[in-house]
């Protein structure tokens, strides 16, 4: 029986990408490269939906319910909300004991698509 890998959740702003489904694949690959299984990916559809984005709040709730402590987020996807990016990062780190793996597009072949950059 294969050992279970730890769980990583995802967060994606659909307004910043042309192919959200393709990005789920990128996040899945990044999670696997870092030794995780990707669980649910929370898709933020609009950035003007209130002070704190609703799918970000759903992500926080899921982090508290599961044993996940890492989130895969494409580079720049926490920016551009009504709440400053630093506040969202602090909310993940302090409110849900979470590290962020910021996924960068076009990582050179053979290198990890993600690296822990915050928390």
TrEMBL record:
It comes from the Bacteria. This is Resolvase-like protein. It comes from Nocardia transvalensis.
């Amino acid at each position: 029986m294969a050992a279970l890998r730890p769980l990583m959740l995802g967060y994606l702003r659909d307004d910043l990408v042309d192919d959200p489904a393709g990005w789920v694949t990128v996040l899945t690959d990044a999670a696997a490269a870092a030794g995780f299984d990707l669980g649910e990916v929370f898709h933020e559809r609009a950035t003007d939906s209130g002070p704190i984005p609703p799918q970000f709040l759903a992500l926080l709730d899921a982090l508290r319910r599961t044993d996940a402590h890492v989130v895969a987020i494409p580079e720049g996807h926490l920016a551009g909300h009504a709440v400053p990016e630093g506040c969202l990062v602090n909310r993940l780190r302090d409110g849900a004991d979470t590290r962020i793996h910021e996924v960068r597009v076009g990582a050179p072949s053979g290198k990890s698509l993600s690296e822990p950059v915050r928390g």
